[in-house]
UniProtKB/TrEMBL annotation, chains A, B:
Lineage: superkingdom: Bacteria
Species in which this protein is naturally found: Streptomyces cavourensis
Pfam families per the UniProt record, alphabetical: LacI, Peripla_BP_3
Record bears the keyword DNA damage: no
Protein name: LacI family DNA-binding transcriptional regulator
């Protein structure tokens, strides 16, 4: 499906004057609502918004501002993804002589109303939202003002209604697991992400498919959901490494979780990659700096953000864009993977080693 | 010394009309130059800029824009410091209902002209510049438009002419070294930053002072300049660890360099902290996630950026601000430091271990 900002424009379009008349307010009040001004009473604002929505109003006049802006909104700026995504938007903005406005706002599911209000006043060229799905309310407000918006969605849970850019999570899980199998591992554990994120499930399914294709049975004790943080990786790996028969390889589901796996191995005196292979996911800069450097699945975050920002420009130019773009992931082999240690089915008994704190 | 935006205002102030008359152009042309518009011929622009500068022109009318912006400009967005600094500015911007505009521009010494032009059009509340010193040109342009600006300068090389925020590098170097001495180390190496950055020299001097106070002689072979990157830490640590009498502790000068030291130790089979203690500097998030978690000097980057953004607000309100603010650093003890291994002067011979690639 292709979307264009002009889909619903054309004959029969309602004018500001008509909205004003139907709402029983002045044109300037309607204009204030469109521009996010605060000096409109809440009931009036609601009445006007409903009419704009009911008539699928689309602003046609483009902002004449001389200093164009692209906005990027995060729920969680702490995210290790944030800097790469900012870089991608910044690259495209620079090419269009635009500034980048960065906001942390709202919940995991929607930017907050304070952002919406300020953004409407700034009238940016467009908005890149790092959220999975968006409430209808938010979509309607953006559409009524003809502000193009695109979702960057590394979590892999796209809103079918909005142009979005993600990456191929299932294929990434498959590639990571195949690499371990090709190294000779058979007893392979996975710490995937949170159970309620589609990307976790897609990576896990990729893992299962690779195992099934190789005819290897998956031990349910070696399949755990994590939290995409270092602590979750540490904790889940500790559980697997303390099993009577521990895995010889762990697919860690994210680079942060992989760092937790490395630490859980280190405090047990388990050498990576000699005794245990570890694969991360994301390929954020720390993956390269870990000891040993992580073999990981490269998620092209910067490129995803660039694509999203370029989609904004195409939407502004009323060119058609895809509703969903999934960029390919690729395996980056570094130093945290190797053939399994010798022993029955690649296993040798756990070293007892009291050293190292926890 | 205290600076205020209004220092040079008052009686005898030149007006736009006077500048226009002296330049032989219209008032609207002068106004275009002030607003960074491109439709002014270069020679005219230069003439007007010179007159504005010669008369120390200060714009008095504040921008009436409804969507206020604070700008932060980096030379190098890749920097591991960037995200923490952005967070600090974002916190203050949020409190003032302002958006944050993020730009990567220019060289290590100055933002580029394309940023200056776009910024003048955006007319932000103020600008946080992550640079050490600024060319006079840049300072004059910002002052003529009454746009407050503050330097955040983790490199510790403040421009005496501009309000700036840094942190206490000498004290940080002292604290890191004292901690190692208190653990019992005497053969301590340092990999400080690049030779041309004041912060590298300040940290090194703090190291030397701590050693001198403890009556320990510094071995020149154990004092190396680095590059503040992982590779530099790896390379310098490799040189020290391959000495006939290797150090029992290394103060790594930055967290990234410390990661390089950890890797150089790992590939030699040297255990951290049992065989080698390592101290970082910065306390960026990866310090906590390293294996083992890094003992490091906390540089309050977020707080530095918050202070800088708050100084902008005080400058706007024509309140006096300090020209230089240095925030305290503090040592964070984690798991990469311990007493030295037993042996003559805390030294035991290098383990021969062929394992681990490089």
């Amino acid at each position: 499906m292709l979307l264009s900002m002009s889909d619903e424009e054309g004959i029969g379009r309602i004018t500001l004057a008509q909205v004003a008349e139907q709402a029983g307010v002045s044109i300037s009040t309607v204009s204030k609502v469109l521009n996010g001004r605060q000096d409109v009473a809440a009931p009036t604002r609601v009445r006007v918004e409903r009419l704009l929505d009911a008539h699928a109003y689309r602003r046609t006049t483009r902002s004449a501002r001389e200093a164009p802006l692209i906005e990027i909104v995060f729920h969680e700026l702490e995210s290790i993804w944030a800097m790469e995504l900012i870089r991608g938007v910044e690259n495209v903005a620079k090419a269009h002589d635009a500034g980048v406005v960065l906001t942390e706002s709202g919940t995991r599911h929607a930017p907050g109303p304070e952002w919406m209000e300020a953004m409407l006043q700034r009238r940016p060229l467009g908005v890149v939202l790092v959220f999975s799905a968006l409430p209808d309310e938010v979509k309607k407000q953006l559409r009524a003002r003809s502000i193009p918006f695109v979702i960057v969605d590394p979590a892999g849970d796209p809103d079918p209604d909005v142009p979005s850019v993600g990456s191929a999570n299932w294929s990434g899980g498959l590639a990571a697991t195949r690499h371990l199998i090709e190294c000779g591992h058979r007893r392979i554990g996975i710490v995937t992400g949170p159970e309620d994120m589609l990307c976790s499930l897609a990576r896990l399914d990729g893992f299962r498919s690779a195992m099934a294709m190789a005819g290897i049975e998956v031990d349910p004790e070696l399949v755990l959901f994590g939290d995409f943080h270092v602590e979750g990786g540490y904790d889940r790996a500790a559980r697997m490494l303390d099993l009577p028969e521990r895995p010889t390889a762990i697919f860690a589901g994210s680079d942060l979780q992989a760092l937790g796996v490395l630490e859980a191995a280190r405090v047990r005196g388990i050498q990576v990659p000699d005794d245990l292979s570890v694969v991360g996911y994301d390929d954020v800069p720390i993956a390269r700096w870990a000891s040993p450097a992580l073999t990981t699945v490269h998620q092209p975050l910067r490129q995803m953000a660039e694509e999203a920002a370029q989609m904004l420009m195409r939407l502004r130019a009323q060119e058609p864009v895809s509703t969903r773009l999934e960029l390919a992931t690729s395996l980056v082999v570094r130093k945290s993977t190797a053939p399994p240690p010798p022993g029955p089915s690649g296993h040798r008994p756990r070293k007892e080693n009291g050293a190292g704190g926890s």
